[in-house]
Specification:
475 residues; alpha/beta; Amidase signature (AS) enzymes; 11-stranded mixed beta sheet; two-stranded antiparallel ribbon; 36% helix
Length: 475
């Protein structure tokens, strides 16, 4: 059976690298297959810009002309990837999903440059909620994408195109962004992994910022280990970016996760769990809790109210003003060029005073202190990635409230300086995927990847929307 690119292998890193080593597939073969599939798919809303065919073939050909020793120095040799179109690559346009805002980038984001230097092949730039404002994935000035499993349902945002490019088997991994859930919600809706690393590990320099103090690059992949491989290559302290920071040593018990290791996971109290009437997601969440218990975990019900208080701060507090700092001048000058809901959110931020901003800063520091004792009781928090999913027509009818619902389990993570990974968790009766998210203190990324990967491998799950499946781990 072949995937949508016509290849007989999934585009996971180990699979593609093994095929390269055996000589059964070359980077040029992969690029030609991807290009053929892009032509067949047409404008499906996933991409805003793809590199010219000649450029892609030349890049693949150059990689093939390297000696064996040169190739061995490139850990992502020949691996195709995409980036969200609010991230700069020199010589290529950046639009942030707003055609009138488009500019030709003169610099490349440092994390993306590390991936290119490691031999990866950039296929193109993907669609998003305009200016990375939203969790729905359809607020764009270009063709709106849909869910990988249903034309009637939203793909999730704001990194909708990034997640879809992985789910469709068009790239091995994608780089998105995550301020309040944008690197996790679309992962959950499209059956892929979404890794939101510790804020600052991946440089956000040369991006169109949403909330500069909170923004984080995120990684979409078919497996948790693939996402982790990309993180290790792309991370690095950026002395020019004031919000960059080097990797730090986590608490010893959160340095890594090993199979059959005992762990304690927090779950919101039953009355604090919210599924917005979606019994399928509620059922799949209970199944996930049972699986984690079978893996050696101990469930601990926790008071989720502090996280809900942080959620309210992010989008009803002063941090919205950062969006105006980033693109407000453009929106003021070109109101008709901006998606209506996005315009409303950004322009309202002008009403936020400096006093309110300081009140928000005091409040978030208080919340950070409140959760410190929690991490002595649990190793990680486990929540549904979202409580439900919506149809496109539902979002169009009620854009703000339903978007807010999608952030019930995601909005607080960057504000409280935590790291997270979204893992597929089966399907609803509608055929739409659902997911769970593991959340832990900063610099616990390795631990979350290990635990998330172990959970993922408890089922023979499909890889994205491709016909390939994840191998189950031995009992």
């Amino acid at each position: 059976m072949s995937n949508q690119t016509g290849l007989t292998i999934p585009l996971t890193l180990p699979s593609l690298q093994k095929s390269y080593q055996q000589g059964t597939v070359t980077p040029v073969d992969v690029i030609k297959s991807i290009l053929a599939d892009l032509a067949l798919r047409g404008d499906d809303g996933i991409w805003i810009y793809t590199l010219p065919e000649q450029t892609l073939i030349e890049r693949a050909t150059t990689l093939m002309q390297m000696s064996a020793s040169q190739r061995s120095q490139l850990p992502l040799w020949g691996i195709p990837f995409s980036i969200k179109d609010c991230i700069d690559v020199a010589g290529h346009p950046t639009s942030a999903a707003c055609p009138g805002f488009t500019y030709n980038a003169t610099h490349t984001n440092p994390a993306v440059q590390k991936l290119l230097d490691a031999g990866a092949i950039l296929i193109g730039k993907t669609n998003l909620d305009q200016f990375a404002t939203g969790l729905v994935g359809i607020r764009t000035g270009y063709t709106a994408p849909h869910n990988a499993f249903s034309k009637d349902h939203i793909p999730g945002g704001s990194s909708s195109g990034a997640a879809l490019s992985v789910a469709a088997g068009l790239v091995s991994f994608a780089i998105g962004t995550d301020t309040g859930g944008s690197g996790r919600v679309p992962a959950g809706f499209n059956n892929v992994v979404g890794l939101k690393p510790t804020r600052g590990l991946l440089s956000t320099r040369h991006t169109v910022e949403a909330c500069r103090t909170l923004d984080c690059l995120s990684i979409f992949a078919l497996t948790a280990t693939d996402a982790h491989t990309v993180l290790k290559i792309a991370q690095g302290y950026d002395p020019v970016n004031p919000f960059s920071r080097p990797a730090n040593v986590p608490p010893a018990h959160l340095s890594s996760y090993q199979a059959k290791q005992a762990f304690r996971f927090g779950v919101p109290r039953p009355k604090q769990q919210e599924f917005f009437g979606n019994t399928d997601v509620a059922s799949r969440y209970e199944d996930a809790i049972k699986t984690l218990t079978d893996l050696g975990g101990t469930r601990i019900d926790i008071d989720y109210s502090v996280f809900l208080d942080a959620n309210n701060l992010l989008f009803n507090g002063p941090w919205v003003a950062e969006r105006y700092v980033s693109v407000g001048a453009f929106v003021d000058a070109n109101p008709e060029a901006v998606f209506p809901t996005t315009r409303e959110i950004i322009l309202k931020a002008k009403e936020i005073t400096a006093a309110r901003a300081f009140e928000g800063l005091y409040a978030v520091e208080t919340l950070k202190q409140k959760i410190q004792t929690l991490w002595h009781q649990i190793d990680c928090l486990v929540v549904p990635t979202t409580g439900t999913v919506y149809r496109i027509d539902e979002i169009e009818a009620e854009p703000l409230t339903l978007n807010s619902n999608l952030g019930y389990y995601t909005n607080f993570v960057n504000l409280l300086d935590l790291c997270a990974i979204a893992i597929p968790n089966g399907f609803q009766s509608t055929g739409i995927p659902t997911g769970i998210t593991f959340i832990a203190p900063p610099h616990s990324d390795n631990y979350l990847v290990g635990l998330g990967s172990t959970f993922h491998h408890t089922s023979n799950a499909p890889l994205g929307a491709t016909p390939f499946r994840l191998a189950m781990a031995s009992p």
